[in-house]
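User: Sorry, what's this?
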Amino acid sequence: MTAPTAAPHGPAGPAGPAGTGPWPGTRPWLIRRLTVLLTVTALTCGALVTAYYGVSRGAADVPGRTVPAMGYVDATSTALRDSLEAAKTALRSPGARTVAAAEGAGEEYRAKINSAFGSLQKANATTVADNGRNILDTTTGQVSSYDYLIEQAARSQADEKLRDAYLQYAESTLKRDRNGVLARLRTVQDEQADVLRAQTTPGWLLQLAWAAALALWAALIRLLADTQVFLRRRFRRRFNGPLAGATLLVAALVPVLLPAALRLQDDLDWARAAARGDASGSTGPEAVRDHMAAAQWLTTVPAGILLAGIVVAALVVIGLQPRIEEYRFARIPQNPGRRIRSFETATVLLALWLVLLSAVGAGDTVRPEHRGRISVLASWTDAEETRFRKVLDAYAAKYHVHVDYQGTTAVREVLLSRLNAGNPPEVAILPSLGEVGTYVGSNTPPRELTPVLKEALGRYGPLWAPRFGGKVYAVAVKADLKSIVWYDPARGQGPRALAARGGGEWCAGMGGDATSGWPGTDWIEDILLQQSGTEAYGKWARGELPWTEGAVPRAWEAFGGIFTKEPAAAALRNDWGQKLLASKQCALQHQASFVRDDRYTGHAAFTSTREVLPGIARGPAASEVSADFATLFAKKGERAGAAEDLMRFLTTEEAQKVWAQVPDDERRKKITTNPGRPFFVTRGAPRPDPGAERVNAAVSTALGGPQPKCLDASDAMPLRMRFAFQHGVLDYLSDPGPEKQRQVLDYLEGVRKELKDAPGAASPRVCE
């Protein structure tokens, strides 16, 4: 092939002198133009794919997952509300005793609660909320707790006061602010609504993507047209067929894509409105699915854009490569050692372009597992949760691990639900020694901690790192003092004088979700400890002491001497969180140190129970205490390693200092008494300042003092015994007196005998 004749002045410059052929810049210009066209083609198609995908990305997930997930959460909430009304109607209607005996809370209640469980299971499987599964697992456990309370109300139908108390506890479990069942469902729904909004709303980034795509599209058309003009002038040919085809194909892209994108956006807008119930006509997951079914084929358009891009690139190469080859043997000076390999260059660029587009297409479907994430379950909510999250934040910042925290008073139900679902938390902080023992003896035990904590275990006394069969499965990360009575010195009377005026002086409440009744068990445990000493107390906690004779009936009699008819009825109605300084109706409160708020640490004082009730001080002085025990359920892999790091971190002075800090909101309110400060039992743990934190320092001194201490007895009992004890307290308070006491203690003794020979983990010591 010979070089063409010289062309008029054009983009490559004028022709060379006569007889010398074209100026040497023509072939490099063509190669550069090929490179530019391929590059801009790749960028244009990539931008169009990105912009169109920004609209279409939710077209499959919105009707197939997001809206159904929201529908399941709504269905769960509705079924739970209806179930509560059905239970109230069934249990309070004429003839309810007969119905309750045969059907529990009634057929309608059972149908509604089964519907709620079914919808909750589907919501868990489809949730699009970031932390949705963990929240819904927690909610499942709470719903089990709610169902238990309703069934307890049905079993208590013969006792109207007890029945209504259980119904009240169930309603509180369902409707409590922030941490109730319905509040958690709202949290999940809000997160899912945010996801739906992101899937259906064109944000500024998407608008920017469309602007960039249109600008590149126009630039590509301009480049293709300019190349056609250049080739026509240089090579004197009317048009270049492949380039003309590429130009027409590119020009058709946007007129085809824009209507499709607008159609999808209209459907997505309607789906968002339908999910909120704002759309005209029928709404709900089925309506959204039907409405969007006709437009599903539009989600395949990005593949067409990629195919069009490949065709355009191929046409550009086909159109320019022959022109480049015509100049291969032209008299063009070459730099020594340098050759322009046009075909190889085009091939490499095309390959890179294909790799780029493949990555763009696959980027959304390849989602690597996020392994730097663990979940933690504990009983702390509200202010306690806020403090503990500070500790988790410090751990996350140090180890670069995200922590999903779930706080609920229904820890047992939630943990069982998650274990059964195969989604256990990596770390669970259990509020009782008995719960630790239950899981140690189960098919899903926590891990032994000696290989994990090693020398850190040496900082714990035997009470705080209990041994089950010689092995440590839990350590106390936080402790509280229980054998105390709170009073307000400003009222002018001492606590002993106030107590002598009768049970009406006590701020007492028994409500506490599935564990309702535990404040009453604390009363009886403390009385028994002060009356009969640590040895009898330990035997009772281990199930070695009968409930119907000796120390136990004496403690119940003392309890009954305080909670006569009216005080008992008030305690049955109230929640455990009733505050001493918020009520003028009562002046004393038998409650653990975790009841503190800024009014307690600023105005209240406390003293030992035996000082307030001298009649019970028959044995040596001792203190009842409680602890929250951290356990490790993560078995292997990166999550297990991260969970082990958290277990070690919780035992360190670094974590304890963060936990004990005055929160920022308290600083802003100028609260300096640090009311929610936790107490630690490790040697060398930070202690409160006795000047600024008068009450906290007194609690810390009592916890660390030489006086014998015993863990909460009911917390150390097997779960069945503990729940029977809690129910027994509520049953007794519904009609206090010798006859009811006899019935309750006979029932509890029967449970003890049944459990006496039951297999289980070896009981650790509860006193030291």
In short: The CA atoms of residues 76 and 116 lie 5 Å apart.
